């Protein structure tokens, strides 16, 4: 039992829509990963590094100032000047790094610098820790002369360091001082939030653009394909007047249209040839069969007892039977050659000898019917081909010239070397071939309109067989003709070394 065909096909519109959508989603995912996740991680690491650098610099400077406190106080006249110096430094740090807030605490958590713990509106200064937070940070890891960096929330990082208070330390705090720096991520997080909303908006726009562009592109692509499909369907139904060519935006579709147009012309020729061959072969079969039947009836009814008439009538039957045999053989040979069933048997042979042999078969025409066959055959010229088929080519071309030569009954057969090729030609002095017929004589069941009686009975398939054989061999061939002066059929064979055989 034959399995049903489960293969599913999708239109180009759908495939382009899916591909564009997948591509857009992929690009958007990459954007989200790099612009949101990776950028946030990168910025957080940069913030941590900045905080460590700033905290280290502030701690070292505070430690230096505290070690120099007695000298500074003595020179400037008191602790107020010393406190003002530290406060000025802290202000400079905060001005240079607006995202940071720097505080200095005593060991008991008393705010030493800056002394103003509240803003002008009464609210707490941004970043100022409460006592619980301060104690937890100090307890977490601030060993003597050590430091710690912690992330309190998505909006804040803190840096704390313990510095030696030197001679300024009181008895109660043992000289402990703590530098506490808060690093605000609010601005960055706000920017990230805005970026996320912008990315959402961009994502929506990109997806709609992807759908629109895919629809537009697929429409432009499928419209000519749809036109070509409709024309091909009409051609498949036998309408060879269709035209595939047109103004297309894509080079590939234009090339496809030209190829289909060429195929249409060739199929049309083949279809016309098939009908013409069928009509002519049917006619050629019908005529001899009718004559065979008629003359057989005459023998049976009239000339059966008359040896002379009986011999004449039986000869007609024999001739017509030979004609039928020739026609059938030509049709079979042409069919076998075109189908590729008849393989070529290539070998190197003497082409001059083959031409001479074929011309000997036409010798009776010079003796009995006054034909003149002029030979211009060079010394042994060898080529590589299928001997039997090339012999058939030579015979058909010579027979064609004999049938269509002029009243002088003269033909010329030449075989000459031209460089690395051999030129074989057969010339007649007949009426010639009109320019519009020089291509069709090779492809169709060609019959001349000449009314003279031809000495070689042909089937009209001779030149078609010649063409098919030469195409199989890939040999160049053609005809030169001038109306009223005759025609010259030629074939170019490859020249081979006779020792190669």
Task: Briefly say what this structure is.
The protein has 501 residues and is α+β, with helices and mostly antiparallel strands.
CATH superfamily of the largest domain: PAS domain
Rg value = 53 Å
What structural category characterises the helix and strand content? alpha+beta
Per DSSP, what share of the residues sits in E-state strands of 2 or more residues? 15-25%
Record the SSE blueprint.
Blueprint: H1 12-67, H2 69-76, H3 79-96, E1 100-106, E2 111-113, H4 131-141, E3 147-151, E4 156-164, E5 176-184, H5 186-236, H6 251-303, H7 307-339, E6 346-350, H8 351-361, H9 363-368, E7 372-377, E8 382-386, H10 387-404, E9 410-418, E10 421-428, H11 440-443, H12 462-473, E11 476-482, E12 486-494
Parallel strand pairs: 7-9
Antiparallel strand pairs: 1-2, 1-5, 3-4, 4-5, 6-8, 9-10, 10-12, 11-12
